[in-house]
Amino acid sequence: MKKIPEHGACFVCGTANPCAIGLTWYIEENGDIFAEFSFSSAHQGPPDHVHGGASAAVLDEAMGAAVWIAGLPVVAARLEVDYKRPLPLGQLVSIRARIGEKHTRKVLTSAEIYLSNGEVAVRGKGIYVAAPHLFENSRFENVDKR
Length: 146
Fold this sequence. Notes:
Layout: E1 2-3, E2 26-27, E3 33-37, H1 52-69, E4 74-83, E5 93-102, E6 106-114, E7 120-130
């Protein structure tokens, strides 16, 4: 596994953002994006559990990172989230994301957030479309992927 760079003020992984969720992303040998982390009380929705928007943001960032690491400057056009189990605050969870299909103008992705016991708590699918003008100075452009 290799650590991939964060990008400044990102809401999910940016060290320059004091409100960031605080994830550190890794790329696995098979190209999947991976992270282990805990949601804090700042991410609460229902009492003692994670707000659905916080978990959706993490899914979006993971799926986007999978595509960016592959060298494709994209943004989310569609995000589908299935909530399977409540995510407790303060518990170590993990996420995995990957590219499913590449088409001329879009990339299909998927990701899961896992509870510490290995159960899927949240599952996502995304459609990402090209937006190179937004990533001209991206730190993901020249990352050694392996």
